[in-house]
Amino acid sequence: MFVLNPDPFLLPAYRISPFQTRHLAENTQWPASDFAQQYFDARFGKNGWMFTFNGREAIRLALKKYHLKPLDVVTILTTSENFYISSCVTKTIEEFCQWNRTVTHDTKVILVNHEFGYPYLKMAEIEALGLPIIEDCCTTFFSQDAAGRVGQYGDFASYSFPKFFPVQIGGLLVSNQGFSEVLTTELNTDEQAYVTQTLSHYLTQNTEIINQRKAIFQYAAEVFKTMGFSLRFEISDLVVPSVLMLNNHHQIKDLPALKVFLADHGIQSSVFYGEDAFFIPCHQHLSQADIDYFAQVIGYYQQNFANA
């Protein structure tokens, strides 16, 4: 059994990120290695990438290169074509100019958000417009499209390490034309060493991480299917999701209230605003018992508060 409605001081802590408290200590123990540099040199080119403090900083550094004016527009496109977009993205754009969700004559840059690990499938059409493109790959580190070009369509691509690895900081800015000048990151020397050391350890486990994520995702999808939910996005062998996104099918009337209830049980989640859907953690450090706990908490809410 699982304890529901626990003492607030005895909550578990399930995050969207695979980072857990134990990794605070574990990440100090990995030996020094330059495997991360070798990996990124091979994947993005020796002059094609740089570490950043997080994904937001990567997007900010990319936007700086366009010398945008306050009335210019960055158009945001997403895989789902829903209006939902993280404020991390919009607030970063607002430091430079305006943003919208449809390409217009005012659009100066297109930012494509490959959402939740699912690539935007109309990249050829966007590329044909001839406008600068930034690809937000923060949740799409391991995923690809059929052409194998996710992260390579635009001038720049941004990545966020905590979405897929058990680290607290770290992002990546990729320039597909290479960097003509050195850009300054918020990461200090010690933090860059930390990111290099920890990523060097985890990047050697890519195959295991992908397989574990896919296995727990499949298990979770089956569990929640029996509860009347369904997957919001179509899965494929090329996709490694960053979360479990579920269609609610109007089973739970108040999804924001479900979000609060899940938080009260130590489970980070969010509503996919604009749609009847929500998402919960699904990563390599979850077990089937963890998924069963998520299901029991949500099932309890279904039975007792779904129509409240």
List the helices and strands and how they pair.
Elements: H1 22-26, H2 35-44, E1 49-52, H3 55-64, E2 73-78, H4 87-94, E3 98-100, E4 107-113, H5 123-127, E5 133-136, E6 156-160, E7 171-175, H6 189-203, H7 206-225, E8 230-231, E9 244-247, H8 255-263, E10 270-271, E11 277-280, H9 288-305
Parallel strand pairs: 2-3, 2-4, 4-5, 5-6
Antiparallel strand pairs: 1-7, 6-7, 8-9, 9-11, 10-11
Helix pairs in contact: 2-6, 3-4, 7-9
Question: What does this protein look like?
Answer:
This protein is an alpha/beta fold and 308 residues long. The protein contains nine helices and eleven strands. The strands form two sheets. The chain has a seven-stranded mixed β-sheet with strand order 1-7-6-5-4-2-3, sandwiched between helices. A four-stranded antiparallel β-sheet has the order 8-9-11-10, covered by helices on one side. Strand 4 (107-113), helix 5 (123-127) and strand 5 (133-136) form a beta-alpha-beta unit. Helix 3 (55-64) runs parallel beside helix 4. It is globular and about 60 Å long. The two termini are 26 Å apart.
Mean pLDDT level: 96
Strand content: 5-15%
Radius of gyration: 20 Å
Uncertain segments are none
How far apart are the termini?
26 Å
| SSE ordering | HHEHEHEEHEEEHHEEHEEH
- Global morphology: globular
Briefly summarize what is shown.
The protein has helices spanning 22-26, 35-44, 55-64, 87-94, 123-127, 189-203, 206-225, 255-263, 288-305, and strands at residues 49-52, 73-78, 98-100, 107-113, 133-136, 156-160, 171-175, 230-231, 244-247, 270-271, 277-280. With 308 residues, it is α/β, with parallel strands linked by helices.
